[in-house]
Each structure stands twice: as C-alpha cells, then as structure tokens.
Amino acid sequence: xxxxxxxxxxxxxxxxxxxxxxxxxxxxxxxxxxxxxxxxxxxxxxxxxxxxxxxxxxxxxxxxxxxxxxxxxxxxxxxxxxxxxxxxxxxxxxxxxxxxxxxxxxxxxxxxxxxxxxxxxxxxxxxxxxxxxxxx
Length: 136
Prior knowledge:
Layout: H1 18-30, H2 34-38, H3 42-61, H4 74-84, H5 88-96, H6 106-132
Helix pairs in contact: 1-6, 3-6, 4-6
C-alpha cells in the first residue's frame, strides 16, 4: 500500500494591482456580487447576486421598509447603514418601497432588507480580500 500524499493547501492568489482592488470594491457595491464577477469568480458572483436579490425581493414582499436616518434616533442610522450595502438599489427603493409597519410580516421584511445589505458588505470585503491576495 503506497502512502497518500498530503492534500495540497490552497495558497492565496497573488495580489492584484491597486486599481483592481478599488474596481472590485466599487463593482461589488454597484451590483451585488459584481466584485467577484470583476475578478472572474463567476460562481461566487452569481450566488451572491442571486442570494441578495432573493433577500431583497422577500423583504419588499413582506412589506419591509427602506429606512431613512432620523435625527435623535441612533438606531435609524444603524438601519440605514445596513441598507446602504444594497448600493444604488437602496436609493431607488427608498423612493418606491413603502413598507407597512402595521403589517404582521413587516418586521420580517425589515430584517431581510438589513440582511441583504449587510451580506453585500461582506461580499464586497471578500472580493477586496481576494483582489489583495489575502485569500483565494
């Protein structure tokens, strides 16, 4: 019986030029999963885009509300920050989506919208780390 070779460890990709770091981050904000698509990580980009689109659509369907910052309400700034991760979709939806806080499902909708924005922020950071060569 021959000994098995140890599994090859995955080495991080070499660092990309500085401009690609910025492009990956901006593309990730403009289009969920766009940073990965710019880095030719089509699988991750497609899964990220689909996941965030589903979370966003479910949040709107459950009558979630796109938050706006309110003076004197620290929590409103946190909710707004979470949804800003949605990129331009936040600004488009802010004028169009009017959640119904009296609806039984509105809290679920709000939570799904916050999760979509925060997940996109994680995708942006992941694309940046891949472009920087810190991970593969």
